[in-house]
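Bench log, entry 3. Co-assembly request; chain sequences pasted below exactly as received.
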Amino acid sequence: MTAGAEFGAAGAAALALWLLAFGAALLATRNGTVQAGPATQELGDSPEPPAVVSLLANGWRSVDHAAESTLLDLAARGHLELRQAGEHPADTTVHLTSDAPTMLRPYEHRVLARVTAQAGSDGAPIGAIAFRAPKQAATWNRLLRQEIVAEARQRGLSRARFGSALGTALMAAAVAPAVLFGLAVLTIGGTHGVRGALLAGAVTFTVLTFLLSTAIGERATPAGLDRAAHWAGVRSWLHAHETFTQLPPAAVTVWERYLAYGAALDVTVRINQLLDFGTGNPRRVWSGYGGTWREVRIRYPRVWPGLGARDRGLLQRALAAAVVAVGLGVFAALRQPSWVSGGLLDTDHAVLTLGWMVTAMLGSAVAGRFNRLTAGLAFFAGAVANALVGDDLGRRALDGSGPLLGEWVAIGLFGAVAGLYVAMAVLDRAAGLTITGEVLRIESRRSEKWPHFLAVDDGTGDRTTAWALPGIPSGFATGSTVRLTVTPATRRVRVVQVLALGADYKAQLREPSSTIS
Amino acid sequence: MDAVGVIVIAVIALLALGLFWVVVRSYNRLIRLRNQTRASWAQIDVQLKRRHDLIPNLVDTVAEYAAHERGTFEAVTAARGAAASRDLGAAERAQAENQLTATLAKLLATAEQYPELRASQNFLKLQAELSGTEDKIAYARQFYNAAVQSYNTALESFPSNLVAGLSEHAKQEYFEAETEAREAVKVRFR
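Structure output for the full assembly:
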């Protein structure tokens, strides 16, 4: 056996040992089973806060509905007020009360701060609590979870799944297979021996540490299991009351903390649907721009020729479309039966197939969507078109009698596209629009290369269509008040002026480890 | 048997199966709701009993400082005895408990006139316990009434009303508190 093979075998053995140790660690630190207690309405003398209950109820894996239940808990304790203005529970608004909160827990502060940022002194619809930026929502919820876990640990209900010693030992042990695999590659040699060895070692270590990171989390303590059993009993009690599942948020006035615990235990289905501390619905966003809260419906124009294109790009596309149209016309006019018999192409089918394929591919290129998928579709379309026209039609097409109906359609289509792009370029150059409003959403399109969708509420209506934003300038975030100079035809944002930073941006700056997009 | 006959029989069998499923589902739901009203009533019962147990101590404590308020003590004791009777339905029980609440409010109002009593640790502790029990009674009543509402609604709704007619189900009474009396107690306790 060569040295390389020996190192490889040793690496494999080390890997197997590591996986065995990791499996044993997982087995030894798995959560105990929660034996649900009897159904009861008793919360206990000093019950855990609903947010901590949500951690227990979710098996120490997540804190789903912790924020919602904390909001209800704050309302039950008089720090907030929920008012249902109309018949539908979605018409509920949240208001700050004059009761100055004291001795709040960190995550309660966080929830209250979020509500305060949105509601101000006049209140806001509950739908407005949702975040408009996914990154901000993710950061906010991650920090919320950390704070809840910290409290659960303080109460002796939760602990880290892997202690620091076990985690460090497993991570250190992951070095062994990584080094051995690296040595195996190095010994086998070749011109890229060192680089290959480093790569093999890095990949092995990365994979193992990734495995390790997936297991990092919380697990129950015996006291935690005991309390989880009690809360499972409370959940059974609440769940057995049919009306409880459909209670609106404003019912907190009557049910007080029970509603908060119902939300934490995922019993209050309707409330958990209405209250959202996530990213909300990108197509329906609450906006308070102009002084009145209203739900703005956003349309994202995903099928819009030339969306976000510059003048030069439009003219290039127009030229390409015109070339295709002219090329098709020339092809139809000049083709002769002699092409077939002369040996340029073997069959008339091939001529037609090629013509259709080229047309379809050029079409996708003009539309800016040429890729492997569209090329494949073009090939398929060519084959289908070929089969459809058939032998007789194919022969007639080659007898010099002029373009076929389909070719006329294609020529007309490409000619129209060329004209449309020219008209858009002219319109964009002639007319510019200035819009002032609040940024509702910034949604990325297929990749970072493409302009982002920018939804702005200018306060004139309840519907808006997103604009194409080529890049995101500094200080630009959801909630900011901006003045935009835009082009009407391609909906491209030409100039951005940030008039006022939004609460979302300021909140991002305050977060210790957030990323400002 | 021809094809039409087979189809007709299949359709009838399917309908019968569907009907059976609806009946079973409605029946089980009624049973579940009725059990929930009973369990909720049991929770009320537990809390009321806890309150009844507190009352003798409370009366004794007040009597130490205000022995001549005999009429009030007797009223409380009598109301407690009436409320603790086992043979009462929900409505009668609610009435008796409301009466007890009213007499308790009077007792506590009396206690307010004795500064030494108000400073008594024993009295304060009993007051706090009574206050906590009152809160629990209020919640238990809410749960009970919610359960009764679901059950009674099911008894009046189609098709469970038909199923209810075939078995022993009857509308339940709500446990209603006299708001005025409750508020009087709550004000005292806070």
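Chain A has 19 helices and 13 strands. Residues 297-304+431-510 of chain A form a domain with the OB fold (Dihydrolipoamide Acetyltransferase, E2P) fold (CATH 2.40.50.140).
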